[in-house]
């Protein structure tokens, strides 16, 4: 609805990927009009597709561009930093675990910092609450049951997670009873933060009964983004997306360590090893680099730009780097700048309409986008 991307009938569309990750590479029409995987196209001509600088540093397209839409809470997850990703990928390879195996934690050797840009009102659990706030939300009964003691410092958060996720079935049911009882108390509080936490705990348990991950709103922050607001999620930050539609740009990786609200594989030891209790999400305020709004993060693999025109207009994009464009409103034509204002031949112009995307190779050089609507542009972070 917010991007115009078509979905198969009678099937919900949770994610659309644009990139060359080997697990789900995009397909492109190459210059000869052949339909093929973007990963294959880049593999066959990496210098042309990526440019020398990106090829030497990464050897692949360094970012993955997604549209994600959540109508119910998605799984709690954490992504590893680069060192842990490399070690984990090597370790699981040595164990002979197939890359596509459901119990695989590390499907590649890369980290996965993320930028989330809201297209609709968006809610997420992201990053730990202050310890005293968690203690207040838990209340005396749950704090005693889970041995949560703020005086022990931030490491008590890992103890809380470990004890919660490792409970036996009978203990889980007892925890759920107490958690829902406490959530009802919080939901009628006059304090907005408590009221929101109580309602969100109920929401999580309604979708995931008997899942201890539904306890997460007790200890994870609830963040709200309005359309146009963005959030940076670095490695080690626990998060779960609750509702809404976002654009995501991230380093090219599908390394996901889950921590609840899921029926998929969970490895609690791996989860505890990648969590960084001192890492926090950060709001990202865009810079106006006329005519673009630009969202930059500490991750050098990607940045995101938006070109928005209420009336027909054009903008020039510097070349020499791989770029993916997504049109969410209106339509645009991509072409190279031509001397004396003359158009290039028709087959050297590409039109992208609402819901469609395009990949521009580094070898294309400088190009122009011309049209009316909204266009998002993902590229390496140095751009």
Give a short summary of the structure.
The protein is α+β, with helices and mostly antiparallel strands. The protein contains 9 helices and 19 strands. It folds into 3 domains: 15-126 and 225-270 and 279-284, Sandwich (Jelly Rolls), CATH 2.60.120; 130-218, no CATH class; 287-379, Jelly Rolls.
Please characterize this protein's 3D structure.
The chain has 383 residues and is an alpha+beta fold. The protein has helices at 38-44, 46-50, 52-58, 82-94, 131-145, 155-165, 169-187, 192-207, 268-274, and strands at 15-18, 27-29, 35-37, 63-70, 77-78, 114-118, 122-128, 220-225, 230-233, 239-251, 257-258, 282-284, 287-289, 292-295, 303-317, 323-335, 350-353, 357-360, 367-379. Strands 1, 4, 6, 7, 8, 9, 10 and 12 form an 8-stranded antiparallel sheet that branches. Strands 13, 14, 15, 16, 17, 18 and 19 form a 7-stranded antiparallel sheet that branches. It has a two-stranded antiparallel sheet with strand order 2-3. A hairpin with a 5-residue loop joins strand 2 (27-29) and strand 3 (35-37). Helix 5 crosses helix 7 (169-187) and helix 7 (169-187) packs antiparallel against helix 8. The longest helix is centred in the middle third of the chain and has 19 residues, at 169-187. Residues 340-346 have low confidence and may be disordered.
